[in-house]
Amino acid sequence: MLIAICDDDLNFIKTIKEHLSFYSGEHNADFEIHTFTNSQNLINSNIKFNIAILDVEMPGCNGIELGKILREKNHHIVLMYITSHKKYLDEALNLNAARFFEKPIDSKRFYDGLDNALKRIDNTTIKFF
After folding, report:
1. Which residues pair with 83 in a beta bridge?
2. Of 91, 105, 83, 6, nearest to 51 (Cα)?
3. Closest Cα partner for 110 from 38, 3, 34?
């Protein structure tokens, strides 16, 4: 499972990676995690990610715009948003985001969100080539 994390806060990237590592161990899930501190580097990546965990407020291209670009490149990508501001919830939902989390992350909600994301990528309804 290819996962992109994009957040301009390195400490928060570390927190998300820790959550993913814990979840991976508990669920025997194999995650290949790539981290980005700005939207442009993720946009320039040639990797076709299964899941993108995006901060909403970042310099330059924000997470909502980034999600739109990623969705154009890969219609099946599962988007998960993390932010300190609820005002972006509607925009994230318009992109069919799997989850919208507020900072700091509630672990149980995050793991439930990963469960949901992985169900979307069960290779019966979404196929990656």
Report:
1. 102
2. 6
3. 3
> Cα–Cα distance between 60 and 66 in angstroms, integer?
10
What are the E-state strand segments in the chain? 2-6, 32-36, 51-55, 78-83, 99-102
88 — pLDDT class (breaks 50, 70, 90): low
Global pTM? 0.86
Element of type H or E holding 12: helix 10-27
Tell me: the pLDDT tens digits for 51-80?
Answer: 999 998 889 998 989 999 999 999 999 999
Placement of tokens 């899930």 in the chain: 29
